[in-house]
Structures are given as C-alpha cells and as structure tokens.
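Researcher: Re-running this chain for the archive, since the previous output was lost when a drive failed. Same request as before.
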Amino acid sequence: MLSIALYALALALFCEATTRVMLASESLSGGAALRSSAGWRLAWLRRQTAERPIYHSFDQYHPTRGWTSRPGVVADTFGPGSVHINSAGLRGKSDVPIAKEPDRPRVLVFGDSFTFGDEVRDEEAYPAVLGELLPEAEVINFGVHGYGHDQMLLLLREEGLRYEPDLVVLGFVRDDMERNLLDFRDFAKPKFELVGDQLSLRNVPVPPPGQVLAKSRWRPRLLDLLVIVRDNYRWKVGLSKRRMNALTTVLLDEMVEDSVTEGALFMFAYLPHSEELTFPDLETPGHVFFENYCAERAAFCLDLLPSFREQIAAGNPIKAAGHWHGRGHRLAAEGIKEYIRDRDLLDL
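Model: Regenerated structure tokens:
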C-alpha cells in the first residue's frame, strides 16, 4: 500500500511539474486559455512586477473594481508625455469639478481601452475629440482599459453619477461581454452573477496584488488547467454564450436605468475593431447582440461599423490590429457628435 501511495504521489508531482512548465509558456497558455479567468491570472503572473503590479505603469489597485488609473500621473506609455491622469483618476490634463457649470451640458463617456485611448495621446482619444467637436458641452472620459460592463456599472454608480451628467455614452466593444463572465482579467476583478433576473455582486472586496500573488504561487497548476478546459468546453457547447448574453443584457439595462433615474439620457456607440474592419462582410456575435439589444429596447444606439467600413472602402485605412490610431478615434467622435445633434440628446 505504501508503494502505491508513493507512486501516486510521484505521479501527481510529475503531472503538476509538467503542467507548470506548459502553462508558463505564453504560446501554450494564451489563446483559448484567455476565455477563462484562470488563463488571465496566469498571464498576469507572467508579467507581474513590483513596478507594474496590474498592467500599465499608471494602474493602481481598487477594492471594488479591481484596478483604476492612478491620480496625478504623467506617463510616456503611448509616447513622450502621452498620458495624463487628473486628480480624480480620469484621463485628461485638467481637473473636473464634480458640480457642473450652469447652462453647460455634461457628457460622460464610459468604456474600455478604446474609450480610454490606448495607443494614442490624451487629445487624440475619441472622448477628447468629441469635446473639441461639441465645445458647448463638457465631455469627460471615464474609460478604463480592460473593463467589462460590470466594472463600468460600478464606476458609474460609485463615481460617474456624482458628476450630474446630462448624457451618458457607452462605447460598446464586443470583447467586454466576455469580461462580464470573468473574475480575473488584467487583474482580479468583481463579477456579477444572475440570481433570477437580479444581479448579485461577487469577489468584492477584490484581493490586493500581494495577496493574489502569494495565493497563486501555491495554487495547483493542474487545477488551473482543468478549469481552463472546463471553461472552454462551456464556450464550445454554448453555455457560456447564453450566460454572457443574459448577464450583459441586465448590466446594460442597469446602467441605463441608473442614468435615467438621475435625469440623464443614455446612448450606446458600437466601436468596431480587428477582423470586423479587415473582413467587410463579417458579422460577429457581439455585433448581432448589439443590434438585437438596441432593437428590443428601442435605445439610443449608434452603430459605427458601417461608417468605418465605408472609410476603409474609400481608401482611408483605419488601424484594425490592437487599438485605433488617431483616424479611428476622430471618425468615432464625428459619428457620435452627429448622432447627438441629429437626435437633440443635449440642449445645445
């Protein structure tokens, strides 16, 4: 019996060591692994340093949202002096008082890295360009890289509505839907579960980086591999897609309801990227969800995919891989401006 137990222990240790080596390789733990919180946590472990405990150098830990931008930072992340974070942790060089100016409507723009403006300077990000195109209004960028709609909802409730918005704009990126199912992405994050048709918040307070790091060192990698396999199976058979669509619907509904309750209008802007721009006839599940949601809710929705494809067809290239450069941001801002003006969403 002792020899069998020793053999079983040796086999378990061998499997664990082999799995650790396999998952330490970026080529083997990327791709499908990133449809699982376990895969994202392993990616974070590979890049984690004392200087960059979250993702970017300007990130900081946040107990309810996982991470946010560190107030008062000037960073060279996308070029010399390209990123300024104001005293409230929002992208931009200027501080914004919570109380808005009389007779000047205020627009809050929520979203992920496309809204924050990864790969471009402060003034090139589409919320900044929108402010330039709507000088009568005050436009504030509430975008944070890597956020799902769950984190955006919490940010709206915790900070956004204090700014007395007249209009809330959500930059809808299809990737954010998958993030709603995760409790780890760029770092550990909150996660809502649907209990009936009600949201139940889990994984809050979010554990700080040091605690996550210490716990992850001793977590069996074989268990991580099994979780990754399980999560990919759920995607393959359609279980995760159904959960994602149902959860995203309620999260968006809550954002709209909270905004309207506080006297603000709400609009969605679909932000296309990657293969949607490379393949002109491609219809992604995220775009289908967006169209169906907008039709069912009769919501204020701007689909920017057609205008982006028209520009590309006319010989005006837009960066598809990664994030847009300046041309894409300006095109998005121009489309949002026209939509706002055409529908009188602001008293301008």
